[in-house]
Amino acid sequence: MAQTSAASPGKVPRTARGRETLRKLLDAAAAEFGERGFHEASISGITRRAGTALGSFYTYFDSKDAIFTALVRDMSARVATTAAAAVSEGATGLQREREALVGFLHFARDHKEIYRIIDEAEFADPQSYRDHYEGTATRIAARLADGVASGTLRDGEQDVRAWAIMGMNVFLGLRFGVWDDSRPVEEIAEVAADLLGEGLRARQG
């Protein structure tokens, strides 16, 4: 789980109980923003979902904007943690990308609200929106570089490749995580890995 150090400056919880309350507020914010959108969501709606007093909100956050920013960063960190945890020890190259995608697809199915939240961040919090995608691309590029170093991937323009892979993963998550979650995620990831490994060119023989 991502660290719950996303409170407004000077309001980081110092106790286990405080961290638990902060986690409840972030989870409630995910439900509130995911269901109602940024503009219709309210602080009272967040605290009602969290089962906390209104005063508890202001113990950790200065405003609705502040908790939205914290939520985007928290969800981005949780995506990174989930993808990393899904990769088996010693995995390299395409296996690593396939397993990371499996982890992301599971996360998308469990947290369908992430798509609306990240999309709205483009306008409600452009910096966090950009940080989310740039951070994700940086992690993918690092995995690709490791694959090149291990000899399991061909060298090339890792930045372009990373953004292309991320774009593919994002829309696979939308299609097979949010819109329709009936197909096994391993099956989806295997098809994607085959595309990365073999491309679209017709095979000879």
TrEMBL record:
PROSITE patterns reported in the protein's UniProt record: HTH_TETR_2
GO MF term list: DNA-binding transcription factor activity; transcription cis-regulatory region binding
Domain HTH tetR-type stretches: 19-79
DNA-binding region: 42-61
Pfam family, one: TetR_N
Keyword line: DNA-binding, Transcription, Transcription regulation
InterPro entries assigned to the protein according to its UniProt record, in alphabetical order: Homeodomain-like_sf, HTH-type_TetR-like_transc_reg, HTH_TetR, Tet_transcr_reg_TetR-rel_C_sf
Entries under Gene3D superfamilies matching the protein: Homeodomain-like (1.10.10.60), Tetracycline Repressor, domain 2 (1.10.357.10)
Entries under PANTHER family matching the protein: HTH-TYPE TRANSCRIPTIONAL REGULATOR BETI (PTHR30055:SF234), HTH-TYPE TRANSCRIPTIONAL REGULATOR RUTR (PTHR30055)
Name the UniProt record assigns to this protein: TetR family transcriptional regulator
